[in-house]
Design the sequence.
């Protein structure tokens, strides 16, 4: 695992200009002891992990297998929710799915990013991974909307089928298998792991689509 000093250097390289500010706080040396792997996993919310039954986010259908996913990623990686929804909307969802696998001071999702003028615009609501300020080699984003992925981030993005509610969906079990393989890769670059995974289908534009039954 890279040392805190090495990681700090990589974080600085992620930002493309001096005017960009990282959306996540700097990971201090003590933070590395909280996670078993060097990875930062970014998850979209709407129609990726769950489906909202109303505009206010008061009621959600959890995607089948969500609890298994939370159990898998808890404590193993730095996990982030990144949504185009408003703060209240995102907070309600996170509180609704909060699930602690074991006694820990660290939540399953270390950060929640919501609609924010630092990155969001109605004209082009993409999620640039460089703004996270993390080692780019170890960042994975899971999305249902390829339009939210910046061109430079396509090699480390997994596009999952839309989830519109209901008990019949096998997206997350396949996603869990993919992420577990990433964890077992001994810190390998995300791009390399995705490129050889039999669980993914690569489109002509370079997007990786999760294979499901």
Sequence:
């Amino acid at each position: 695992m890279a040392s805190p000093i090495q990681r700090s250097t990589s974080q600085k390289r992620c930002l493309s200009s001096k005017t960009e500010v990282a959306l996540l706080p700097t990971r201090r040396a003590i933070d590395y002891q909280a996670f078993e792997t060097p990875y930062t996993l970014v998850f979209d919310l709407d129609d990726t992990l769950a489906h909202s039954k109303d505009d206010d986010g008061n009621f959600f259908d959890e995607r089948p297998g969500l609890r298994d996913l939370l159990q898998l990623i808890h404590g193993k990686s730095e996990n982030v929710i990144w949504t185009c929804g408003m703060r209240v909307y995102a907070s309600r969802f996170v509180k609704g799915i909060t699930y602690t696998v074991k006694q820990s001071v660290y939540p399953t999702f270390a950060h929640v990013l919501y609609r924010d003028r630092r990155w969001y615009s109605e004209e082009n609501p993409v999620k640039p991974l460089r703004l996270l300020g993390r080692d780019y080699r170890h960042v994975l984003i899971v999305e249902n909307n390829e339009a939210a992925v910046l061109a430079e981030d396509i090699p480390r993005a997994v596009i999952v089928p839309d989830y519109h509610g209901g008990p019949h969906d096998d997206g997350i079990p396949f996603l869990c298998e993919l992420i577990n393989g990433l964890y077992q890769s001994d810190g390998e670059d995300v791009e390399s792991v995705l490129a050889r995974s039999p669980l993914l289908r690569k489109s002509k534009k370079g997007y990786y689509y999760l294979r499901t039954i």
The beta strands are 40-43, 50-52, 60-62, 78-82, 111-113, 139-143, 157-159, 200-202, 208-210. The two ends are 35 Å apart (CA to CA).
